[in-house]
Write a structure and sequence with these properties.
By secondary structure, this protein is of the alpha+beta class. The protein has four helices and eleven strands. The N and C termini lie far apart (42 Å). It has helices at residues 6-22, 28-35, 40-52, 73-76, and strands spanning 57-58, 66-67, 78-88, 100-105, 114-120, 134-139, 148-153, 157-166, 169-173, 182-184, 189-199.
Length: 206
């Protein structure tokens, strides 16, 4: 396939995350809001270019017409990665090490070692991460400002938070006003990985 521009890649990644989270494609308005773009017409241009390059197709007779090509093996194939345990999205707790595996779409694998953690708690709810979700984590030892990270705190507690640098220290920031951000000395925080995707299982309705 043809190379994507940075903005096209952002749009494509957002569409993939939205479908994973909600089970259907986003509207142009939702993409614009999610990416902070000024107009849905800008999104329309990016989506049309992604279709021309073969990354997206148009679903006929549907209000939500964005779809992936049926022949896209990256979207359809699944690979098994370790289910490494459970992680707190509230106050820090120890991750529980399991020996299970879980299947994820092949296109959601990171460049480095990839694993999955099940989320406990609700401190990341405004980032659309809720209790029971599975976060896909790429193993890394560094993170950029604003990334959602798995962090080892004070050598014995693991937590899921947004990573920020703050006046020479590390700020681990929740996405729920009911929780406070916590600030640590840099030597007390070790990044274990960066969240690159979310999986959610829905209960069947009667």
């Amino acid at each position: 396939m043809q190379t994507l521009t940075k903005k096209q890649k952002q749009v494509l990644d957002y569409i993939e995350r939205f479908i994973t989270d909600f089970g259907h494609s986003p509207s142009y308005d939702e993409i614009a809001r999610g990416l902070g773009l000024s107009s849905p017409s800008t999104v329309y241009v990016h989506v049309q270019n992604l279709r021309k390059k073969g990354y997206l197709t148009k679903k006929s007779y549907s209000n939500r017409s964005i779809d992936f090509p049926q022949a896209s093996t990256a979207v359809q194939q699944a690979v098994e990665v370790p289910l490494a345990g459970r992680i707190a999205a509230g106050l820090p707790i120890e991750a529980v090490q399991d020996t299970e595996a879980i299947g994820i779409p092949a296109h959601m694998l990171g460049r480095n070692e990839t694993y999955v953690l099940q989320v406990k708690g609700d401190s990341m709810i405004e980032d659309h991460v809720v209790h029971g979700d599975y976060v896909i984590v790429e193993s890394r030892r560094t993170a950029r400002d604003g990334e959602m990270v798995v962090a080892l705190v004070e050598n014995d507690q693991v937590t899921l938070k947004r990573f920020r640098r703050h006046r020479g220290k590390i700020k681990l920031e929740p996405a729920n006003p009911a929780y406070q951000a916590r600030i640590y000395d840099e030597e007390d925080v070790r990044i274990q990985g960066v969240v690159i995707g979310i999986l959610r299982k829905y209960k069947a309705t009667p």
